[in-house]
């Protein structure tokens, strides 16, 4: 394709994931000249069934989304190793190409800092984002039901009806009813019926790493909308740095083509939508005489306050079948312990306390009922030494009675957790790679332990033979990168203002989870989308 820069552009967007795609679509539809620069390739949608087959075939075939190598090199020098490349995608569509597709709104308590912790408030409220949340749900085609008594207030129904509970959800319901724990549906960015030219989910069950049917939303949908409205999208052109003019405004995004040639894309406004790791990295790579610590970094906070969600889970086996109608994504959760994680759990019938109350500071808890727990038949077959009828008999005995709960716990913002540059290691263009300096802390570990306590109570009530627990010492991230260019009103304490515009550079905005002030414990993509749509409105006002 032609990778020469456009002669005229009103807006240059860096990144073609969900934030960049929505911004490009909205601004192009308003008549603005938009150029999108994407580091990764454009994937052929017609090959997704082939990708699915490759993903589930036994053996290590590498990433079906072509991650790895010098292009994606990174370092992890913190107290905890951070496996950055395990779950990210560079390409048109970004991480939505292989995400799970769960889309929840953050709670008002996340924004106003009223959790029983010392987490700071955001400079925007839930009500500020409420209309943008609704727009984002329509853009994604969210399927959901209004049955969650703990959800924040909303106006109107979800665009699509929710998915029915899975069979294993019905098993969990018995135990939860005994314990006074409320189950409810999960809003999903996948079609429960035809929507926006895409068909309904057909149950492949391979949502991660690939949805072959196109029922699950990915950001290439809005990239195509943007192109139809006149936007230009250039793939395989990683931006090397941003250059400023004498007035301190961004003059050009310097990008490299596959043959190594550098070009300068000029525009009136620039938006970085490259995620919580590559966004601060680009700002730091843009250091120059006029901004020696990186662009938009007068506060010195670019890269700081890196956050993620940590997984808590437990599971085992039950003396009955659990996996009928396996669908591959969550259909039920519990947000009862989100705003009040320290509340006790008691049996309804006799009032016996199963989990004691606590007044210790805890992060919000999001609990999940996993309907895809346990090994696959292929995994069981490959790990054994049996053959023929003996193997078949063993599979029938061992498969289909696993059951588990999961959950997410958000990290508190800690300044020492950060993304910086590792000058000792370079990528395929000679740039320092990102270095993740990651640690946990007491509150996070207490919160993970609390989630495990509640999970064990439910599983025990159900009669599960609990054989594994993931939590507080042995767990890992959900790969939700947040907080590295935090939002605020004080230029000394933040990188962007409530309009997502950097304090230092008037024509530079950031639309990413990197602007999150706190992590909450909800999957972040719907909030990313809401903030992106808000950012687009503010950029449009300045054009």
TrEMBL record:
* Region described as Disordered: 45-64
InterPro entries the UniProt entry points to: FAD/NAD-bd_sf, GMC_OxRdtase_N, GMC_OxRtase_C, P2Ox-like
Keywords attached to this Swiss-Prot or TrEMBL record, sorted alphabetically, are: FAD, Flavoprotein, Oxidoreductase
Biased composition annotated in UniProt, kind: Basic and acidic residues: 45-60
Determine if Disulfide bond is one of this entry's keywords.
Answer: no
Pfam families from the xrefs?
A: GMC_oxred_C, GMC_oxred_N, NAD_binding_8
Which molecular-function annotation in GO is an example for this chain? flavin adenine dinucleotide binding
Using the record's annotation, list all stretches that form the Glucose-methanol-choline oxidoreductase N-terminal domain. Answer: 89-310
Task: Tell me where in this chain the Glucose-methanol-choline oxidoreductase C-terminal domain is found.
Answer: 413-532
Needed cofactors, names only, are:
FAD
Q: Which family does it belong to?
A: Belongs to the GMC oxidoreductase family.
Q: What is this protein called?
A: Glucose-methanol-choline family oxidoreductase
Q: Which organism is it from?
A: Haloarcula vallismortis ATCC 29715
